[in-house]
Protein 1
Amino acid sequence: MRVFAIADPHLSRAFPKPMDIFGSNWQGHPGLFFRRWRETVREEDLVVIAGDLSWALRLPEAMLDLEDIGALPGRKVILRGNHDYWWPSIGRLRQVLPPGMFAIQNDALVIGGLALAGSRGWITPHDREFTNEDDKIYRRELERLRLSLEACRKLSYQKFLLALHYPPTAADGEPTGFTELIEQYRPDAVVYGHLHGAAGNRVMTAWDGIPMHLVAADFLSFYPKLIFELPGSG
Protein backbone atom coordinates (compact mmCIF):
# COMPACT_ATOMS: atom_id res chain seq x y z
CA MET A 1 0.00 0.00 0.00
CA ARG A 2 1.30 3.42 -0.96
CA VAL A 3 0.47 6.36 1.31
CA PHE A 4 0.05 9.79 -0.24
CA ALA A 5 -0.88 13.16 1.22
CA ILE A 6 -2.30 16.38 -0.14
CA ALA A 7 -4.05 19.37 1.47
CA ASP A 8 -6.07 22.40 0.48
CA PRO A 9 -8.03 21.21 -2.55
CA HIS A 10 -10.47 24.09 -1.86
CA LEU A 11 -13.33 22.57 -3.83
CA SER A 12 -16.64 24.36 -4.31
CA ARG A 13 -18.99 22.48 -6.63
CA ALA A 14 -22.14 23.88 -4.98
CA PHE A 15 -20.98 27.47 -5.54
CA PRO A 16 -17.97 27.46 -7.91
CA LYS A 17 -15.21 29.74 -6.68
CA PRO A 18 -12.28 30.48 -9.02
CA MET A 19 -8.95 30.08 -7.24
CA ASP A 20 -6.65 31.64 -9.85
CA ILE A 21 -7.16 34.99 -8.11
CA PHE A 22 -4.67 33.55 -5.59
CA GLY A 23 -2.02 32.92 -8.25
CA SER A 24 -1.49 31.61 -11.76
CA ASN A 25 -0.57 28.17 -10.36
CA TRP A 26 -4.28 27.71 -9.58
CA GLN A 27 -5.28 27.95 -13.23
CA GLY A 28 -7.18 24.84 -14.27
CA HIS A 29 -8.30 24.12 -10.71
CA PRO A 30 -10.23 22.04 -9.68
CA GLY A 31 -9.93 19.88 -12.82
CA LEU A 32 -6.18 19.72 -12.29
CA PHE A 33 -6.66 18.33 -8.80
CA PHE A 34 -8.90 15.48 -9.99
CA ARG A 35 -6.87 14.68 -13.07
CA ARG A 36 -3.52 14.48 -11.29
CA TRP A 37 -4.98 12.42 -8.47
CA ARG A 38 -6.19 9.88 -11.03
CA GLU A 39 -2.77 9.91 -12.73
CA THR A 40 -1.05 9.15 -9.42
CA VAL A 41 -3.24 7.12 -7.07
CA ARG A 42 -4.38 3.50 -7.43
CA GLU A 43 -7.34 1.82 -5.75
CA GLU A 44 -5.14 0.01 -3.22
CA ASP A 45 -3.48 3.26 -2.08
CA LEU A 46 -4.35 5.58 0.80
CA VAL A 47 -4.47 9.38 0.61
CA VAL A 48 -4.48 11.73 3.60
CA ILE A 49 -6.21 15.04 2.88
CA ALA A 50 -4.96 17.53 5.45
CA GLY A 51 -7.78 20.03 5.57
CA ASP A 52 -9.52 22.77 3.58
CA LEU A 53 -11.45 20.32 1.46
CA SER A 54 -14.39 22.55 0.57
CA TRP A 55 -15.45 26.19 0.61
CA ALA A 56 -19.00 25.08 1.49
CA LEU A 57 -20.62 26.56 4.58
CA ARG A 58 -23.05 23.69 5.24
CA LEU A 59 -22.69 19.93 5.14
CA PRO A 60 -25.25 19.30 2.33
CA GLU A 61 -23.24 21.62 0.06
CA ALA A 62 -19.94 20.05 1.10
CA MET A 63 -21.31 16.59 0.34
CA LEU A 64 -20.99 17.35 -3.38
CA ASP A 65 -17.25 17.83 -2.92
CA LEU A 66 -16.90 14.89 -0.54
CA GLU A 67 -18.67 12.63 -3.03
CA ASP A 68 -16.39 13.83 -5.84
CA ILE A 69 -13.36 13.00 -3.69
CA GLY A 70 -14.94 9.71 -2.67
CA ALA A 71 -15.22 8.70 -6.33
CA LEU A 72 -11.46 9.05 -6.82
CA PRO A 73 -9.15 6.00 -6.55
CA GLY A 74 -7.90 4.92 -3.13
CA ARG A 75 -9.06 5.14 0.44
CA LYS A 76 -9.08 8.60 2.00
CA VAL A 77 -8.51 10.00 5.49
CA ILE A 78 -9.58 13.59 6.08
CA LEU A 79 -9.13 16.16 8.82
CA ARG A 80 -10.50 19.63 9.27
CA GLY A 81 -8.87 22.80 7.95
CA ASN A 82 -9.53 26.39 8.96
CA HIS A 83 -11.88 26.93 5.98
CA ASP A 84 -13.95 23.77 6.52
CA TYR A 85 -16.84 25.66 8.10
CA TRP A 86 -19.24 22.92 6.97
CA TRP A 87 -17.62 20.32 9.27
CA PRO A 88 -20.31 19.09 11.72
CA SER A 89 -19.97 16.89 14.80
CA ILE A 90 -17.68 13.97 14.07
CA GLY A 91 -20.50 11.47 14.65
CA ARG A 92 -22.74 13.13 12.11
CA LEU A 93 -19.92 13.42 9.60
CA ARG A 94 -18.98 9.75 9.85
CA GLN A 95 -22.59 8.77 9.17
CA VAL A 96 -22.54 10.43 5.73
CA LEU A 97 -18.97 9.99 4.49
CA PRO A 98 -18.67 8.10 1.19
CA PRO A 99 -17.44 4.50 1.40
CA GLY A 100 -13.70 4.25 1.92
CA MET A 101 -13.44 7.74 3.47
CA PHE A 102 -12.52 8.23 7.14
CA ALA A 103 -12.24 11.29 9.38
CA ILE A 104 -9.93 11.96 12.32
CA GLN A 105 -10.98 14.16 15.24
CA ASN A 106 -9.63 13.66 18.76
CA ASP A 107 -8.83 10.03 17.89
CA ALA A 108 -6.68 7.85 15.67
CA LEU A 109 -7.02 4.88 13.34
CA VAL A 110 -4.99 2.21 11.57
CA ILE A 111 -5.39 1.35 7.89
CA GLY A 112 -3.19 -1.24 6.24
CA GLY A 113 -0.55 -1.04 8.96
CA LEU A 114 -0.46 2.76 8.94
CA ALA A 115 -1.48 4.58 12.12
CA LEU A 116 -2.90 8.05 11.58
CA ALA A 117 -3.32 10.82 14.13
CA GLY A 118 -3.92 14.48 13.55
CA SER A 119 -5.63 17.77 14.18
CA ARG A 120 -6.36 21.07 12.50
CA GLY A 121 -3.72 22.90 14.54
CA TRP A 122 -3.62 26.70 14.62
CA ILE A 123 -1.28 29.65 14.29
CA THR A 124 1.33 29.59 17.03
CA PRO A 125 2.49 32.15 19.63
CA HIS A 126 5.47 33.37 17.59
CA ASP A 127 3.21 34.38 14.70
CA ARG A 128 3.12 38.18 14.53
CA GLU A 129 -0.68 38.12 14.15
CA PHE A 130 -1.26 35.92 17.23
CA THR A 131 -3.96 37.32 19.55
CA ASN A 132 -5.54 36.40 22.90
CA GLU A 133 -8.40 34.74 21.01
CA ASP A 134 -5.85 32.74 19.00
CA ASP A 135 -4.27 31.61 22.26
CA LYS A 136 -7.58 30.02 23.34
CA ILE A 137 -7.90 28.13 20.05
CA TYR A 138 -4.20 27.19 20.08
CA ARG A 139 -4.51 25.59 23.52
CA ARG A 140 -7.70 23.77 22.52
CA GLU A 141 -6.05 22.40 19.40
CA LEU A 142 -3.06 21.24 21.40
CA GLU A 143 -5.39 19.22 23.62
CA ARG A 144 -7.17 17.77 20.59
CA LEU A 145 -3.86 16.72 19.10
CA ARG A 146 -2.73 15.21 22.40
CA LEU A 147 -5.94 13.15 22.55
CA SER A 148 -5.34 11.91 19.03
CA LEU A 149 -1.73 11.01 19.76
CA GLU A 150 -2.67 9.22 22.98
CA ALA A 151 -5.26 7.20 21.04
CA CYS A 152 -2.56 6.29 18.54
CA ARG A 153 -0.31 4.96 21.30
CA LYS A 154 -2.83 2.20 22.00
CA LEU A 155 -2.77 0.90 18.42
CA SER A 156 -0.59 -1.65 16.66
CA TYR A 157 0.99 -0.46 13.42
CA GLN A 158 3.99 -0.54 11.08
CA LYS A 159 4.26 3.21 10.43
CA PHE A 160 2.83 6.27 12.17
CA LEU A 161 1.84 9.41 10.27
CA LEU A 162 0.84 12.66 11.95
CA ALA A 163 -1.30 15.02 9.86
CA LEU A 164 -1.89 18.69 10.61
CA HIS A 165 -3.58 21.40 8.61
CA TYR A 166 -1.46 24.26 9.93
CA PRO A 167 2.32 23.93 10.09
CA PRO A 168 3.41 23.11 13.64
CA THR A 169 5.53 26.24 14.03
CA ALA A 170 5.64 29.81 12.76
CA ALA A 171 7.96 31.11 10.05
CA ASP A 172 10.71 31.74 12.61
CA GLY A 173 10.95 28.00 13.30
CA GLU A 174 10.75 28.43 17.08
CA PRO A 175 9.45 25.49 19.16
CA THR A 176 5.74 25.37 19.98
CA GLY A 177 3.36 23.11 21.84
CA PHE A 178 2.83 21.25 18.57
CA THR A 179 6.53 20.60 18.07
CA GLU A 180 6.79 19.45 21.69
CA LEU A 181 4.09 16.84 20.99
CA ILE A 182 5.91 15.78 17.82
CA GLU A 183 9.10 15.28 19.84
CA GLN A 184 7.25 13.38 22.55
CA TYR A 185 5.27 10.97 20.34
CA ARG A 186 7.85 10.58 17.50
CA PRO A 187 5.74 9.93 14.38
CA ASP A 188 7.58 8.50 11.38
CA ALA A 189 6.57 11.59 9.37
CA VAL A 190 4.46 14.73 9.63
CA VAL A 191 2.38 16.24 6.82
CA TYR A 192 0.91 19.74 6.89
CA GLY A 193 -0.80 22.17 4.54
CA HIS A 194 -2.25 25.69 4.76
CA LEU A 195 0.78 27.52 3.30
CA HIS A 196 0.16 28.87 -0.19
CA GLY A 197 2.79 30.41 -2.41
CA ALA A 198 5.57 29.01 -0.20
CA ALA A 199 9.07 29.02 -1.71
CA GLY A 200 10.75 25.61 -1.67
CA ASN A 201 13.84 26.86 0.15
CA ARG A 202 11.70 28.19 3.04
CA VAL A 203 9.69 25.02 3.68
CA MET A 204 10.37 23.06 6.87
CA THR A 205 11.43 19.53 5.89
CA ALA A 206 12.34 18.04 9.30
CA TRP A 207 11.91 18.57 13.03
CA ASP A 208 14.19 16.83 15.52
CA GLY A 209 15.08 14.29 12.83
CA ILE A 210 11.44 13.59 11.89
CA PRO A 211 10.62 14.16 8.19
CA MET A 212 8.05 16.89 7.55
CA HIS A 213 6.18 17.41 4.28
CA LEU A 214 4.32 20.49 3.09
CA VAL A 215 1.47 19.03 1.03
CA ALA A 216 -0.60 22.09 0.09
CA ALA A 217 -2.08 21.24 -3.32
CA ASP A 218 -0.70 24.27 -5.14
CA PHE A 219 2.79 23.65 -3.70
CA LEU A 220 2.64 20.09 -5.10
CA SER A 221 1.30 21.23 -8.50
CA PHE A 222 -1.78 19.22 -7.48
CA TYR A 223 0.00 15.84 -7.46
CA PRO A 224 -0.54 13.87 -4.21
CA LYS A 225 2.85 13.35 -2.54
CA LEU A 226 4.12 9.85 -1.78
CA ILE A 227 4.99 9.59 1.92
CA PHE A 228 5.33 5.83 2.62
CA GLU A 229 5.10 2.45 0.94
CA LEU A 230 3.84 -0.37 3.15
CA PRO A 231 3.56 -4.05 2.25
CA GLY A 232 0.03 -5.32 1.61
CA SER A 233 -3.21 -3.39 1.42
CA GLY A 234 -4.63 -4.22 4.87
Protein 2
Amino acid sequence: ALLSFLPLIPMLTLLAVECVALGDLAREFDIELRARDYARLLLGALPYQVVLAVAAVRATLREAFGIGHWEKTDHSGAHL
Protein backbone atom coordinates (compact mmCIF):
# COMPACT_ATOMS: atom_id res chain seq x y z
CA ALA A 1 0.00 0.00 0.00
CA LEU A 2 2.84 2.40 0.77
CA LEU A 3 4.42 1.78 -2.64
CA SER A 4 1.29 3.11 -4.33
CA PHE A 5 2.05 6.55 -2.90
CA LEU A 6 5.58 6.71 -4.38
CA PRO A 7 4.50 8.60 -7.53
CA LEU A 8 3.14 11.38 -5.29
CA ILE A 9 6.61 12.25 -3.98
CA PRO A 10 8.05 13.57 -7.27
CA MET A 11 4.73 15.19 -8.21
CA LEU A 12 4.47 17.09 -4.92
CA THR A 13 8.13 18.05 -5.19
CA LEU A 14 7.51 19.35 -8.70
CA LEU A 15 4.49 21.34 -7.52
CA ALA A 16 6.51 22.91 -4.71
CA VAL A 17 9.30 23.87 -7.11
CA GLU A 18 6.78 25.31 -9.59
CA CYS A 19 5.12 27.40 -6.86
CA VAL A 20 8.51 28.77 -5.80
CA ALA A 21 9.41 29.44 -9.44
CA LEU A 22 6.10 31.25 -10.03
CA GLY A 23 6.76 33.50 -7.02
CA ASP A 24 10.32 34.14 -8.21
CA LEU A 25 9.11 34.97 -11.73
CA ALA A 26 6.56 37.41 -10.35
CA ARG A 27 9.18 39.03 -8.15
CA GLU A 28 11.67 39.27 -11.02
CA PHE A 29 9.22 40.94 -13.41
CA ASP A 30 7.32 42.90 -10.76
CA ILE A 31 4.03 41.07 -11.36
CA GLU A 32 1.38 40.93 -8.67
CA LEU A 33 0.30 37.36 -7.94
CA ARG A 34 -3.07 36.46 -6.53
CA ALA A 35 -4.19 33.27 -4.85
CA ARG A 36 -6.04 32.50 -8.08
CA ASP A 37 -2.72 32.19 -9.90
CA TYR A 38 -1.44 29.60 -7.46
CA ALA A 39 -4.79 27.78 -7.56
CA ARG A 40 -4.64 27.58 -11.36
CA LEU A 41 -1.12 26.20 -11.13
CA LEU A 42 -2.12 23.56 -8.59
CA LEU A 43 -5.40 22.59 -10.26
CA GLY A 44 -3.82 22.39 -13.70
CA ALA A 45 -0.99 20.14 -12.56
CA LEU A 46 -2.98 16.91 -12.50
CA PRO A 47 -4.55 17.29 -15.98
CA TYR A 48 -1.14 18.29 -17.32
CA GLN A 49 0.45 15.15 -15.85
CA VAL A 50 -2.34 13.02 -17.34
CA VAL A 51 -1.73 14.50 -20.80
CA LEU A 52 2.01 13.84 -20.42
CA ALA A 53 1.35 10.25 -19.35
CA VAL A 54 -0.98 9.59 -22.29
CA ALA A 55 1.61 11.02 -24.69
CA ALA A 56 4.33 8.85 -23.15
CA VAL A 57 2.21 5.69 -23.44
CA ARG A 58 1.32 6.55 -27.02
CA ALA A 59 4.96 7.16 -27.93
CA THR A 60 5.98 3.89 -26.27
CA LEU A 61 3.35 1.95 -28.20
CA ARG A 62 4.38 3.58 -31.47
CA GLU A 63 7.99 2.64 -30.79
CA ALA A 64 7.08 -0.92 -29.79
CA PHE A 65 5.09 -1.48 -32.99
CA GLY A 66 7.76 0.12 -35.19
CA ILE A 67 5.66 3.06 -36.28
CA GLY A 68 8.29 5.66 -36.99
CA HIS A 69 6.81 7.94 -39.63
CA TRP A 70 6.47 11.62 -38.90
CA GLU A 71 2.97 12.77 -38.04
CA LYS A 72 2.42 16.19 -39.44
CA THR A 73 -0.62 18.39 -39.24
CA ASP A 74 -2.02 19.12 -42.66
CA HIS A 75 -2.08 22.81 -43.52
CA SER A 76 -3.96 24.39 -46.37
CA GLY A 77 -1.30 27.05 -47.00
CA ALA A 78 -3.77 29.83 -46.14
CA HIS A 79 -1.03 31.81 -44.42
CA LEU A 80 0.81 32.40 -47.71
Protein 3
Amino acid sequence: MRPWRPEDLDSLVRHANNRAIWLNLRDRFPHPYTRTDAEEFLDRAATLKPQVFFAIDLEGEAVGGVGIVPNDDIERISGELGYWVGEEHWGKGLATRAAREMTTYSFQTLKLHRVWATPFERNTASIRVLEKLGFRREGTLVESVIKDGRLESMVIMAITAPEWTQLV
Protein backbone atom coordinates (compact mmCIF):
# COMPACT_ATOMS: atom_id res chain seq x y z
CA MET A 1 0.00 0.00 0.00
CA ARG A 2 1.37 3.38 -1.01
CA PRO A 3 0.03 6.77 -2.11
CA TRP A 4 -1.19 7.04 -5.68
CA ARG A 5 1.23 8.84 -8.03
CA PRO A 6 0.67 10.59 -11.37
CA GLU A 7 2.84 7.97 -13.06
CA ASP A 8 0.27 5.30 -12.05
CA LEU A 9 -2.08 6.57 -14.76
CA ASP A 10 -1.40 3.87 -17.37
CA SER A 11 -1.40 0.95 -14.95
CA LEU A 12 -4.57 2.25 -13.27
CA VAL A 13 -6.42 2.35 -16.60
CA ARG A 14 -5.04 -1.05 -17.64
CA HIS A 15 -6.10 -2.83 -14.43
CA ALA A 16 -9.31 -0.90 -13.67
CA ASN A 17 -10.84 -1.10 -17.13
CA ASN A 18 -12.20 -4.59 -16.56
CA ARG A 19 -15.83 -5.59 -16.34
CA ALA A 20 -15.03 -8.43 -13.90
CA ILE A 21 -13.69 -5.85 -11.44
CA TRP A 22 -16.55 -3.39 -12.00
CA LEU A 23 -19.10 -6.14 -11.29
CA ASN A 24 -17.80 -6.38 -7.70
CA LEU A 25 -17.65 -2.65 -6.93
CA ARG A 26 -20.02 0.25 -6.44
CA ASP A 27 -21.20 2.05 -9.56
CA ARG A 28 -19.14 5.12 -8.67
CA PHE A 29 -16.25 3.02 -10.01
CA PRO A 30 -16.90 3.53 -13.74
CA HIS A 31 -16.93 1.02 -16.56
CA PRO A 32 -15.44 1.36 -19.02
CA TYR A 33 -12.65 2.95 -16.97
CA THR A 34 -11.10 5.62 -19.17
CA ARG A 35 -7.96 7.73 -19.03
CA THR A 36 -10.11 10.68 -18.04
CA ASP A 37 -11.58 8.66 -15.14
CA ALA A 38 -8.06 7.77 -13.98
CA GLU A 39 -6.83 11.36 -14.26
CA GLU A 40 -9.79 12.64 -12.24
CA PHE A 41 -9.32 9.96 -9.58
CA LEU A 42 -5.57 10.57 -9.26
CA ASP A 43 -6.15 14.33 -8.95
CA ARG A 44 -8.78 13.79 -6.25
CA ALA A 45 -6.73 11.19 -4.35
CA ALA A 46 -3.73 13.55 -4.24
CA THR A 47 -5.71 16.40 -2.67
CA LEU A 48 -7.48 14.51 0.10
CA LYS A 49 -6.24 15.23 3.62
CA PRO A 50 -5.88 12.89 5.31
CA GLN A 51 -5.14 10.44 2.54
CA VAL A 52 -7.77 7.73 2.33
CA PHE A 53 -7.09 6.14 -1.08
CA PHE A 54 -3.92 4.15 -1.77
CA ALA A 55 -2.45 2.08 -4.57
CA ILE A 56 -1.79 -1.61 -4.13
CA ASP A 57 1.80 -1.88 -5.30
CA LEU A 58 3.42 -4.97 -6.77
CA GLU A 59 7.06 -4.53 -7.72
CA GLY A 60 6.59 -0.80 -8.32
CA GLU A 61 3.38 -1.09 -10.33
CA ALA A 62 -0.05 -0.03 -9.12
CA VAL A 63 -2.14 -3.19 -9.63
CA GLY A 64 -5.18 -2.23 -7.57
CA GLY A 65 -6.54 0.14 -4.98
CA VAL A 66 -7.56 0.21 -1.35
CA GLY A 67 -9.33 2.91 0.60
CA ILE A 68 -11.47 3.94 3.49
CA VAL A 69 -14.44 6.29 3.28
CA PRO A 70 -14.94 7.79 6.74
CA ASN A 71 -18.54 8.33 7.73
CA ASP A 72 -19.78 11.62 9.15
CA ASP A 73 -22.26 12.93 11.70
CA ILE A 74 -23.08 10.35 14.39
CA GLU A 75 -21.33 7.64 12.33
CA ARG A 76 -18.03 9.59 12.28
CA ILE A 77 -16.30 6.86 14.31
CA SER A 78 -16.75 4.39 11.43
CA GLY A 79 -15.45 4.04 7.90
CA GLU A 80 -16.18 1.84 4.89
CA LEU A 81 -13.29 -0.24 3.60
CA GLY A 82 -13.01 -0.96 -0.11
CA TYR A 83 -10.41 -2.65 -2.29
CA TRP A 84 -9.86 -4.12 -5.72
CA VAL A 85 -7.00 -5.93 -7.45
CA GLY A 86 -6.36 -6.29 -11.18
CA GLU A 87 -7.72 -9.63 -12.39
CA GLU A 88 -4.33 -10.98 -13.44
CA HIS A 89 -3.23 -10.70 -9.80
CA TRP A 90 -6.22 -12.39 -8.15
CA GLY A 91 -5.40 -15.18 -5.73
CA LYS A 92 -1.98 -13.82 -4.69
CA GLY A 93 -3.05 -12.46 -1.30
CA LEU A 94 -2.70 -8.82 -2.38
CA ALA A 95 -6.22 -7.84 -1.32
CA THR A 96 -5.74 -9.41 2.10
CA ARG A 97 -2.43 -7.60 2.68
CA ALA A 98 -3.82 -4.28 1.47
CA ALA A 99 -7.01 -4.60 3.54
CA ARG A 100 -4.89 -5.44 6.60
CA GLU A 101 -2.70 -2.36 6.10
CA MET A 102 -5.71 -0.12 5.44
CA THR A 103 -7.53 -1.37 8.53
CA THR A 104 -4.47 -0.71 10.69
CA TYR A 105 -4.13 2.76 9.13
CA SER A 106 -7.83 3.43 9.79
CA PHE A 107 -7.48 2.66 13.48
CA GLN A 108 -4.02 4.07 14.15
CA THR A 109 -3.88 7.14 11.89
CA LEU A 110 -7.51 8.07 11.29
CA LYS A 111 -8.51 7.07 14.84
CA LEU A 112 -11.67 5.31 13.70
CA HIS A 113 -13.40 2.93 16.09
CA ARG A 114 -15.08 0.66 13.53
CA VAL A 115 -14.21 -0.43 9.99
CA TRP A 116 -16.87 -2.09 7.88
CA ALA A 117 -17.33 -3.42 4.36
CA THR A 118 -20.29 -4.63 2.34
CA PRO A 119 -19.19 -7.11 -0.33
CA PHE A 120 -21.82 -8.60 -2.57
CA GLU A 121 -23.02 -11.91 -1.12
CA ARG A 122 -21.89 -13.68 -4.30
CA ASN A 123 -18.34 -12.33 -3.90
CA THR A 124 -17.03 -15.13 -1.72
CA ALA A 125 -13.38 -14.18 -2.36
CA SER A 126 -13.90 -10.72 -0.88
CA ILE A 127 -15.83 -12.12 2.07
CA ARG A 128 -12.96 -14.54 2.67
CA VAL A 129 -10.44 -11.66 2.67
CA LEU A 130 -12.38 -10.01 5.48
CA GLU A 131 -12.88 -13.24 7.42
CA LYS A 132 -9.12 -13.92 7.32
CA LEU A 133 -8.57 -10.51 8.91
CA GLY A 134 -11.02 -11.17 11.74
CA PHE A 135 -13.98 -9.16 10.46
CA ARG A 136 -17.27 -10.61 11.66
CA ARG A 137 -20.39 -11.05 9.59
CA GLU A 138 -23.03 -8.77 11.08
CA GLY A 139 -25.79 -9.61 8.66
CA THR A 140 -27.05 -9.66 5.11
CA LEU A 141 -28.85 -6.83 3.37
CA VAL A 142 -31.14 -8.96 1.22
CA GLU A 143 -31.71 -7.62 -2.31
CA SER A 144 -30.79 -4.15 -1.06
CA VAL A 145 -28.92 -2.89 -4.14
CA ILE A 146 -28.96 -3.15 -7.91
CA LYS A 147 -25.84 -3.90 -9.93
CA ASP A 148 -25.74 -4.45 -13.67
CA GLY A 149 -29.55 -4.51 -13.73
CA ARG A 150 -29.86 -7.26 -11.10
CA LEU A 151 -30.92 -7.14 -7.48
CA GLU A 152 -28.04 -8.07 -5.21
CA SER A 153 -27.62 -8.87 -1.54
CA MET A 154 -24.72 -7.44 0.43
CA VAL A 155 -23.01 -8.87 3.50
CA ILE A 156 -22.11 -6.50 6.33
CA MET A 157 -18.64 -7.31 7.68
CA ALA A 158 -17.04 -5.25 10.45
CA ILE A 159 -14.38 -5.06 13.12
CA THR A 160 -13.77 -2.58 15.94
CA ALA A 161 -10.46 -1.12 17.08
CA PRO A 162 -10.38 -3.15 20.32
CA GLU A 163 -11.06 -6.35 18.38
CA TRP A 164 -8.31 -5.46 15.88
CA THR A 165 -5.82 -4.78 18.68
CA GLN A 166 -6.42 -8.27 20.03
CA LEU A 167 -5.66 -9.80 16.62
CA VAL A 168 -2.53 -7.95 15.56
